[in-house]
């Protein structure tokens, strides 16, 4: 049997919830698989092969398009709760009873909803460049960046994922080269699908009373990763997530924007692999949450 | 030649700046040594052997008492700038021209001053449980915790370094056992020395205009580590450091207080060793700082 990787894993399909889900599966089988949840307008081809293949060394990696995205059938729902329910149906249709879940950007919002709706299904969570319900988007430049035009359409992702520094932009070009090296690519996301994702974001970030309270129910060991200056989902949201999740480690990378883990793929793979394989953060069932101390005044004023 | 460790390394002395500095040196020689800067009221015996011996596997470790502390002669100055100058004199007296510097709590404040005063001497910085000049201490419970009485004097350090959760307190007891296992211990810090350290803290945290501006001059790759709920130096200060240093990675540990790295010594040693040995964050001289984007509103109001 051929050992597949990011570039060679065939696209397969499975039915669940009336949706035909496209997915790819590769890496070291036999342990708890790691299910990747993609960002706004992204398909399976938008992941960085340095990250997926890096993690595939010690983990089985599962990429998929959620309902209505690219080669998966169905419609994109207008809430992350529904996207989470679809993801759970997909995971269960594969016959899996325990997975690790990685979510990037709105994929991290879906990942949180998966953990809330199916706590027994999820062993550990990795949340990259994301935020909680009620996320503070005040300083986000997302609308402006996605609305702009670029010399090459792919340069949009340099603006989204990388900082303006020469070293970050150079890392961005290397990422694009890795990203674009697969030949049989997924179809791009439709305008209708992107609109539904945008609508879900709008609902998710609406302010609400005690909007972070439900985070205490996500008891899985969690690794939160973000860039120091995320202009899509502002970095303070990872800080808020870390303070409100009972068992979360936070890592922020320097000089980095939304695609922090694509800028430092080796470092990320090493840290994520250690997080997934070690028991430093204990197991969900046994963790006693820390006393929730008051927020520092600097932060509590606004949240 | 015997290979020494935390428990067996002899206390040696060296003169500089008119001070007789006590120090211990062990671990893997031949590379860039790692110089440890201790917290309020701490001596060389206050470090966690799991951390020092862990890092000594790949690095030469240098512990010392700064001027006026424990077995070192002289007086404790009443500013971290002066403590930094003394530390630089000590390092140079050892004949070293390049070191990595780790600072914990007020030792992290000294470490920053070392990097500012002697940028060419410092290769990389590790800042644990600390804050910048002008640190936000509004929610610190330091005064109350240090003023309280405890069944055993050592239990003070459970309150300082560990969270109230059963798992953190258990980690704290294991730390105390490690810490107290050396027989020929340094004298405790005098009341006079502690008072001078307290005075230095008072000056350091005084609000001032553009108090974070000088941080952009600390261009060394930096690793910042703190607990999720540091009640001595509030955790938000690491977030502020990360945002203002040009090349800093931030790691926050869950359910952890001031002594976060004593709660997760294996994880810390692994991450710190990787930081010191890899080039993920590049070299100081070549780094182009990221564009400094505006603070999120949530944070900018207060700083």
UniProtKB/TrEMBL annotation, chains A, B:
Any matching Pfam family: Abhydrolase_1
UniProt-listed Gene3D superfamilies: alpha/beta hydrolase
Keyword Protein transport in annotation: no
Keyword check for Hydrolase: yes
Residue span(s) of domain AB hydrolase-1: 33-262
Species in which this protein is naturally found: Bradyrhizobium niftali
InterPro entries given in the database record: AB_hydrolase, AB_hydrolase_1, AB_hydrolase_fold
GO MF term set: hydrolase activity
SUPFAM superfamilies in alphabetical order: alpha/beta-Hydrolases
Recorded coiled-coil stretches: none
Protein name, per record: Alpha/beta hydrolase
Keywords: Hydrolase
